[in-house]
Design brief:
The complex is a heterodimer of chains A (about 170) and B (about 475). With about 170 residues, chain A is mainly beta. Chain A folds into two domains: about 5-45, no CATH class; about 90-165, RNA polymerase II/Efflux pump adaptor protein, barrel-sandwich hybrid domain (OB fold (Dihydrolipoamide Acetyltransferase, E2P)). Chain A has helices at about 5-15, 55-60; strands at about 20-25, 30-35, 40-45, 90-95, 100, 115-120, 125-130, 130-135, 140-145, 155, 160-165. The longest helix of chain A has 13 residues, at about 5-15. Chain A is globular and about 50 Å long. Chain B folds into three domains: about 1-110, Rossmann fold (3-Layer(aba) Sandwich); about 150-210, Dna Ligase, domain 1, CATH 3.30.1490.20; about 215-460, ATP-grasp fold, B domain (D-amino Acid Aminotransferase, Chain A, domain 1, 2-Layer Sandwich). In chain B, about 35% of the residues lie in helices and about 25% in strands. In chain B, α6 packs across α9 and α7 (about 150-160) crosses α8. Classes of the chains: A mainly beta (about 170), B alpha+beta (about 475).
Chain lengths: ~170, ~475
């Protein structure tokens, strides 16, 4: 979820009679409530402005870094800990650190869209690392369910890029 | 840009290209300086303390070092996407990799350490010895590189003076070495050494050095800025080693006289100057029973045992490293440095002394670190932490200090007695036993100490 989408949700709430909106994604929680004077109050699960907040921040809803505050301090906050795996679903993960691009160039079409069929050697995206554009292949057969990273966003090693339905 | 006093801070965010206790140490220094931190980590270090405490964190690979902490491409990539100003390489990993330092230089990221050319110069042992020798620093007498024939080898041995050690050019870590005490035994040892080297390393070339019997390993801490000032912060005696791995370090050395300390300090500074050194580094010497000292190598990085010097002098070495990298001048001179305490560091390893120091990774059940006056613990572990099996076994450092050596010894013993690490085996009992051992208490330990101690001490007294 990015700033543009959050703004769209706020607009939607302003224009409607909605008093509360909540959404939860992997590693991210957002709740918007209509405040006393009608202005929406936004509380999000991202404490810092950086694309890579520490693991302790990513899981807490108030964004403050308090790493060793509970009995089992760090076990629940790792973003790598996945929610229950759905049947037949797999993920394309980043093999490197860099910037994620969905198309070969700013003017071209995206490599894959929701619903695109992929084979093992289908190029699904580019990750730019140190000025080199690396083509990333699907390495599995399947159908793209959705892209999990925004175009132009930085990604880390092991980060989930696409959700695929296998087969 | 952040402005403090008259100085404009260029370094605002630092990437820590390391893990474990040193990564935590760097995070702490950055926090105190108001500098943002980016931790890069492997999948095995997700639960690591410094990863939680840093401002940002980026995963750079799988558990193996070769797939993460040694991947300079991923580290530089992370530095670029997170827009860092500098990289602190810690110790080990890429800290003495001249190519990595060069890559940082060409990507306009400040490498917190010396220039890449100093790393290159001091990284080659022959070049290093040659460079410091020209600056009037004593080196271990020996052949100029490998010897071509037995005749030449004998000539060198006689010139250098017995006893001599015959070392494999391709060897290391204590392997491929034979000692000869006279002409008669030399011929035999020379051929045995060559054969062993050929078998073990595929390269039979050997070189000759004077063998220094029962030396003390005494190193000097260097701090230099980028404006030409080179200082030494005193010595550390690191003679207590097992298989060339340091176990205990202390300062001041119980062996050095004030005169010898002065001589060696000056030599250390000359050695660093000959390498055009900047930032923190260490000059290593071997010292024989008569007080003759010989340069063996320079470590162009911050070292594990740096806290010993910090507690003796009161100077924060990591902060000084960052300041030097920031282009600042060192704001003190040699005469300003005071050596006010005696400090002893014990390296706590997750190893089982009863099983020949076999690594003991696993989950720590209960962790309770000692405290009180004169006790410092540098450790990244905590109750419930699982030690990954992919990296070295050091889990913490206990540094105890006081106004004299007796106090530091007693304090070390007291602190070790309070130190609880349940669920894994550690070397805490070993350190307690050494602190109670007369030879160590009398300050008589040389590099031969550990082998002697382990040989005469029943295992159940130190495990």
């Amino acid at each position: 979820m990015d700033l543009k989408q959050i703004k769209q949700i706020i607009d939607l709430m302003k224009r409607s009679e909605l008093t509360e909106f909540a959404v939860e994604e992997e590693g991210f929680k957002l709740k918007i409530r209509r405040g006393a004077n009608g202005v929406p109050i936004v509380s999000s699960g991202r404490g810092s402005n950086s694309p890579f907040p520490t693991l302790a921040e990513a899981g807490t809803s108030n964004g403050s870094a308090s790493p060793v505050s509970t009995a089992s301090p760090l076990t629940t906050n790792a973003p790598a800990a996945a929610p229950a795996e759905e049947a037949g679903i797999t993920y394309i993960k980043s093999p490197m650190v860099g910037t994620f691009y969905r198309s070969p160039s700013p003017e071209s079409k995206v490599f894959v869209e929701n619903g695109s069929k992929v084979a093992e050697n289908t190029v699904v995206c580019i990750i730019e690392a140190m000025k080199i554009m690396n083509e990333i292949q699907a390495e599995t057969k399947g159908v793209v369910v959705e892209a999990l990273v925004e175009n132009g966003q930085p990604v880390e090693y092991g980060q989930r890029l696409f959700k695929l339905k296998q087969g | 840009m952040r402005i403090s006093g008259f100085f404009v801070y260029m370094i605002q965010k630092i990437l820590i290209a390391n893990r474990g206790e040193i990564a935590l140490r760097i995070v702490r220094a950055c926090r105190e300086l108001g500098i943002k931190t980016l931790a890069v980590y492997s999948e095995a270090d997700v639960q690591s303390l410094h990863v939680q405490l840093a401002d940002e964190a980026i995963c750079i690979g799988g558990p193996k070092s070769s797939d993460s902490y040694l991947r300079s491409d991923r580290i530089i990539s992370a530095a670029e996407i997170a827009d860092v100003d500098a990289i602190h390489p810690g110790y080990g990993f890429l800290s003495e990799n001249a190519k990595f330092a060069e890559q940082c230089e060409s990507c306009n990221i400040k490498f917190i350490g010396p220039k890449s050319k100093s790393i290159k110069m001091m990284g080659d042992k022959s070049v290093a010895k040659d460079t410091v020798r020209k600056a009037g620093v004593p080196i271990v007498p020996g052949s100029d590189g490998p010897v071509e024939s037995e005749t030449e080898a004998v000539k060198v041995a006689r010139k250098v003076g017995y006893p001599v050690i015959i070392k494999a050019v391709a060897g290391g870590g204590g392997r491929g070495m034979r000692i000869a005490h006279n002409d008669v035994s030399f011929a035999k040892e020379y051929h045995v050494a060559r054969n062993e080297a050929e078998k073990a390393f595929g390269n039979g070339a050997v070189y000759i050095e004077r063998y220094i019997e029962r030396p003390r390993h005494i190193e000097f801490q260097i701090l230099a800025d980028s404006h030409g000032k080179v200082l030494h912060l005193g010595e550390r005696d690191c003679s207590v080693q097992r298989r060339h791995q340091k176990l205990i370090e202390e300062s001041p050395s119980p062996f050095l006289t004030p005169d010898l300390r002065k001589k060696m300090g000056k030599a250390a500074v000359r050695a660093a100057e000959s390498a055009e050194y900047e930032n923190a580094g260490t000059i290593e010497f071997l010292v024989d029973a008569k007080g003759n000292f010989f340069f063996i190598e320079m470590n162009t990085r911050i070292q594990v045992e740096h806290p010993v010097t910090e507690e003796v002098t009161g100077i924060d070495l990591i902060k000084q490293q960052i300041r030097v990298a920031n282009g600042e001048k060192l704001d003190f001179d040699q005469g300003d440095i005071k050596f006010e305490k005696h400090a002893i560091e014990c390296r706590i390893n997750a190893e089982d002394p009863a099983r020949n120091f076999a690594p003991s990774p696993g989950t720590i059940g209960l962790y309770y670190a000692p405290g009180g006056h004169g006790v410092r613990v540098d450790s990244h572990v905590y109750s419930g932490y699982t030690i990954p099996p992919y990296y070295d076994s050091m889990i913490g450092k206990l540094i105890c200090y006081g106004s004299n050596r007796k106090t530091a010894l007693e304090r070390s013993y007291r602190a070790l007695s309070e130190y609880l690490i349940r669920g894994i085996k550690t070397t805490i009992p070993l350190h307690k036993a050494i602190m109670s051992d007369p030879t160590f208490i009398e300050g008589k330990a040389t590099t031969a100490y550990m082998e002697d101690f382990l040989g005469r001490t029943p295992t159940d007294l130190f495990s």
